[in-house]
Each structure stands twice: as structure tokens, then as C-alpha cells.
Queue: 2 jobs
Job 1
Amino acid sequence: MVPTPTRNEEETRLRQALCRVGALCYKKGFIVGTDGNLSVRTAHDTILVTPTGAMKGFLEPHHIAHVDMDGRAIDDGPRASSEIGIHLTSYRERPDMHAVVHTHPPHAVALSIAGIDMQLPLIPEVVVTIGGTPTTPYATPGTHELGDSIRDVVRCSDTLIMKNHGAVTLGSNLLDAFKKLDMIEHTARILWLAHAVKGGIEPLPQEAVKKLLETRRQLGIKTTNTLENQCGL
Ligand code: 13P
């Protein structure tokens, strides 16, 4: 039997994971400067979150902030992200999720600025897994507006684009949240290229979507899917 990690062991592992995934987001070009914030919920219902104003690609475990489910600091460590509201809203609305990653992936954000919808059914892999990615209305970063602006969508989607701002992805763990972010930006690049070569796109027809959602059921995939639950539609 695998022994249950102690509270300290769990915290050490999660702090290291936040640093590793922050570095990955930077290497992949999803953040620059002091962009973005990442968090994980511990087994004791506290949140380890990246500190405000730091370069999230270059963090070390002692840079991570630790807060309760209301965003209050629970140690003398660094100050939590100014966008902690995104994370608190996500965990409150989705008790099934344990990690939240907010970044500024350029193609996905550019499409939101151009008013191009990423919730359309475009690529089979995406239709079968997350469905699509809804866009939420613009809200001012660093204010309460931000957490409120994502509430309705985060209830029914693991991924979203905050218009003119960035992506938010939720996962069962950090790698799962990163995987969804990677999928969003990859899809956005494909969508961008399709618009560039043709000046318009052809989403998958309804019949093809129906078949893919049926395949999903046959494969026993139970994760949240925005085409299945009609999120934001
Ligand atoms: P924080 O450094 O406070 O998390 O803010 C980063 C950010 O992305 C601002 O939009």
C-alpha cells in the first residue's frame, strides 16, 4: 500500500509542481514578464498560489504563497496573486477541480480580441474531450469583477478565454490544467491559420459532432464537455 503523504510532503511536492508548470508556461510562450498565475488546492482545502508581480517562469518553492479558501494568507510568506479571485471562484464552483492555470496565450487571446469564437466544433480531439472553449466578457484585471465574470462559465467548462485578457484552465491536477491550456492554444493557432488562408472557417457539421459525442460516450469519457452540456450556448 502507498503511504499517504504527510502535510509537509504534499506541500513540498505541490510547490515544486507550481514552479515546474510555471516554467513550462513561460517556455511555451503562454506568459511573458510577470503575466499569469497558477494555483493548486491541497488535501486540507488550502490554496498554494503564485505570488503577485513575480516572473512565473522563474519561481522557486519558497516564492509560493499559501492562502485559505477565502484568499487570506495563512503564513508569513509572499503575497498571493492579485487575481486570486479567478482561483477562489473556480474552486468554489468546481469542488471536483484541484488546479487552476491562468495565462496569456497569444493566439487564443488574439482570437478573443478579433471576436472569433473558440466554442465552435472544429477538431475531433477537442470535441471528444473538452468540447470547446467559451469566451467570458471583459473584466478589469486585479478587481473583484474578474472572479465574478467567469462564475457562470466555470460551472460548466474546464476552459475559458477572458476576452482581451487570457485563458483560464481547470484540472484534476496541475498537469491536467496545463494540458488543457496547451490544447486551447494549439487549437487557436490552427483556427488562426485557417482564417489566414481562407478568410473564414467551416466548423464540423452537426452530424459529425453527434457522432463524436457518441464516440465519447462509448469510450466512457466522463469529464466536463461544453458541447455536451451546451455551456454558454
Ligand atoms: P499577478 O502577478 O498579481 O498574479 O498578476 C499577473 C497578471 O496576469 C496580471 O494580469
Job 2
Amino acid sequence: MCGIIGYIGRQQALPIILDGLKNMEYRGYDSAGTIVATQTGIFAEKAVGKIAALGAKVGDPSKIIGSLAIGHTRWATHGGVTEQNAHPHADCGENLWLVHNGIVENHKELKKELIEVGHVFKSETDTEVLVHLIEEARKKHRELELEDVLRISLQKVRGTYGIAVMDRREPQKLIAARNFSPLLLGIGENEYFVASDVSAVIKYTRSIAYLNDGEIAVLTPEGFSVYDFDRNLQTKKLHEIEWSAEEAEKGGYSHFMLKEIFEEPEAIENSMRGRLFPETGEVRLAGLEKFRGILKNTRRILISACGTAYLAGVAGKYMLEEQVGIPAEADVASEFRYRKPVFCEGDLFLALSQSGETADTLAALREAVDKKIPALGIVNVVGSTLARETDAGMYQHIGPEIGVASTKAFTSQIALLTLLTLFLRQDRGMDAVESKRIADALAKIPDLMRRILEKSEYIKEIAKKYCKYENFLYLGRKYNMPVALEGALKLKEISYVHAEGYGAGEMKHGPIAMIDGNFPSVFIAPQDSVYEKMLSNIEEVRARKGPIIAVATEGDMRIRELADDVLYIPKTLELLTPLLTVVPLQLFAYYIGVLRGLDVDKPRNLAKSVTVE
Ligand code: AGP
């Protein structure tokens, strides 16, 4: 996610800004920038790449005299990785400067309106719309304070933001506003900070006030005030942060992996924002608009990816076949690229990749592109190779995934595959009532995930009970067969414990020979179309004294009779169950890895992106 830091006070601002940006590097970014209000005007600098590149362009920061400044690390969402797209962004007069976290959903229409009244845009970002909106509002309301002009401007915005704004003509004022994207105030001794997370300011102050959605803060060297959208003054509680700087980077979580598991509800919301409209069941995929013709004539979808992304693709295969009625294949990219696939008229290739740089997935994509097969991508990293080499696609918008083990990327990919399924149903005039039923259920998933996450302490207890076992068998059917493989992959890569993932129907064709009292089985058995089959499999393992952990639907008492331990998930539609059944398995693997004293964020032998074959 992008990083924001602003400063106003008695010290020179620029060294503090650069230091704060450096302390947010862990968040992942691809460019950075800063602006300082100086006695002679402004000092602005931006750079692609690391903070060190920005520092090199700045030179000695103590030579830039000014006590009001803002800085930003950008993780590209709209617009490529370029200096022009790096924040801060300025208005036409280069008086107003703004940094932003979040997504302006209606940026296209706002930009069109602003250009029509003469505004000139320099970047491809959605963010730049905000600073021109404020400039336009300022022209119309010269009598108003900057914070009031900002309030008027933000009323036109649909989407999410955490922003810091300054006007070089008012070097005694720093404004901040929040809607969905976290933003906090650091309260120092006659100096004040605004930041997207504690790690940026913890070196200077541990006294923090968190902004709520719809609040606007006004900071001056003398103090700060916070207002709601109706300009009512708000009293803010000050929190004393006890975290170490390192803990602050992880938002108070012990590891990035745990943080990213707990981010999953928000990640899904961000992936679906501006795309899913449950009130009508409509799905809008702007990135695929120009592709509608090809999608309409698509007769088979070939999904290819690696690791966890591949397993999301298997769930997508089931969904596309069951809900759209077209053939879909899911292949591990490292096999697809060598098995001489036969392509047909009407084929569509779909690559899934969090990093967008996985060598085998890129090779599989190029195999399809060479044969002139239309290619889509579902990718998290904007501007990545895969994003650039596919014809169209969807960005995941989940922020960087730092932990090597993929968690929020998996559930986000499944959510986006569900949106693609609904988009194809919509385009083919399929039963709108059923589509709306799926859309409604999908919109509820983030809150259902939150209910599972509330039980994390219980899952930790179950992990404690099983953390000494050296072998596990994970079993699931249909939509939860890939979840069985994903649960096993999580345990393998995080705790180095041997874990086999299998379709439960295959159990009697070999794996059951391994079962005894020292070989627990994890059954993913929600109440779905294959539930009864799963119960039979559980009975077969039970008869052989194998310990049993079941992931089951809340209220299911039958399975409680059969399993030694049950991890419950809320009820949802069968095709959406992977979004919920995977969460307890992610936590189970995480806690076992921690209990075994391992580095769960950086497991041995693994890289976050496998850019070599
Ligand atoms: C999963 O936890 C692993 N990190 C790995 O299997 C990963 O999913 C795979 O390498 C694919 O990465 P990508 O999504 O960046 O292409």
C-alpha cells in the first residue's frame, strides 16, 4: 500500500520526511516523492525506485529550509511506474500539493469535467484529479479556508482516500482527510505529523490520534483540530504506542503473514470496489470492456499459473464450467509450457500471478500469445511484466503481499475469478436472478471472513495441539479440492512439515495407506453438494484411528461427532466456500510455523517471486 507522511512544526521538515518514507519501505512501493514549502517557494522532488534514489536527487536535505512538507511512497494502481505518476501531485498553478492513498473510482468523469474547464493534467493517476478539484473549488470559494474547500471538493469523490494537502501560500497549515484509507496524526512537542502508519512517525512521537472516515484534520505549528464532514469539531483520543519500530512496520502484528491474513476482508473489498454492485447484481470490469467481443465468443478458457495462484485457478475452472457452461482448463504453468498444448478457435488464455513476474507463468503466457490466443491476466503488481504482456486484465488492488506465503492474493484471485464468472454470465444473458444471488453472497464474504478471524485464538489452540505431528493429509472435493492442496502447501512452506493435499475421492486409491494415529487428516467439508461423500471419507479415516480436523459449516453437529477438532466457517454458496475454508487453514499453518520457531515471513529456500525457471 502507498505510504504517506506530512510534517509541520519547529524542525526542518525534509530530513524527517525522508526518514519517515524510509521507515515505510516495507509496505512495498515503486516510486516516491516529496514537497517542501520553503522561504523562496517550494522544493519538489520525485524518483522511480527506492527512497535512496529520491535521496540522491534531493542531496543534503538539511540544506532545504522549510518546516512544512509532505512525502509519499507510491504502489502503482492507476498509471505506470513513472516520475510523472509519483506523488505529490500539484494543481495547475503549482500552489496546491497533495499525496493520496486509495482509489478514486469516478476519476475518469471528474477528470473530463476538469479538463473541460481548462485544467491541465500531467499524470495518468486517479489521484491528480483530487488536487485539481480543490483548485477549482478554491476559485469558486475564495473566502473559504483550505479545509472547507477540501470538504467541498471531496463531496464529489466516490472511492477511498487518505490524503495530505498543503498550499505553498499557507505554509502554516497542513490538512489531512480520511475515507477508508488509514490515516493518523502524530502529536509531538510543538510539531505535528500526518501518516498512513505508525512506523513513519514512531521515532519522533508515540502519541497518536487516528482519523476516522469522513474526518478532516487541520495541523498548524501551534496545534491540531479535527472536524467531521459537517464541520463539527471532534475530540480525539490520544493513544500511546508501545510497539517497537519493527512491530510498527507490521501494524502491530507479529509477522507480515499474519497481518496479510487479517487484511483479507479489506483486500477482497478493495478487489471488488467499483466492480461489484450487489444491489443490482451488476459487475463492471473496466479492464475488460474492450475485450467484450472476444469474451462473448470465447468457447474455452485456459487458466495457467504457479503455486497458490494455480490453485486459485483450479477453483476458477470449476466456477466457470458450472456457472457459465464453457469448458475451462487449469494447468500448472511449468507443465503447460512444455506439453505442446493444442489451441482451438475461441480459446482464451488466463494467467494468474500476484507478482506478475513468475518465470513459468510468463513462459506459458508467451506460448499462448505466440499462437495468437487472446490473453487475460489477474495480477496484483501494476506494470509488472505479465500485466504488460497480456491483452487485458484485472488488477487485484490488494497492496503488496510481503509474506512469502501467499494468503490475501489467493482469496483476492478467487474473488476476481468470481467477478469474471458473473461478468461472462451477464454478457451471455444468463439467469440474472442466480447471478444476483451469487453477487449478494460475494458481497457478504468480507464480513464472514471477519467472523472466522475473530476465532483466531481458538485456531491457535488447535495448532498447538497438532504442532508436533510430522505428517498431514489434507482432503477436499470439488471447489475445496484446490483448498485442500492450498492448505497443505501453506503448512509445507511455512512449517516445513510434510503435508499432502488430495481430492478426497482419491483417498482410497493410495493415500489412505499412510493413515494411522500419527498421521492427522484435515477434511475441508462444508455443507455442500459433496458433503455426504466427505462424511464417508471421514468415517474411513476414523476407522483407521487417524486424528481428524474438519473445516465445517457453523451449526454442523454431525461432523462434531466424527472429528477430533472442528474449525467452523459461516455458511455461504458452494462456489464461494474456498474464500472461507482457506482462512482457518492459513492461520493453522501460520501458528504451527510460529510454534516451531520458524521465520514464517521468509521460509527457507523460498522466494516471494520465482523469477527463474
Ligand atoms: C505460495 O504461498 C507461494 N508463495 C508460491 O507458490 C506462489 O504462489 C507462486 O510462486 C506464484 O507466485 P505469483 O502469484 O507471484 O505468480
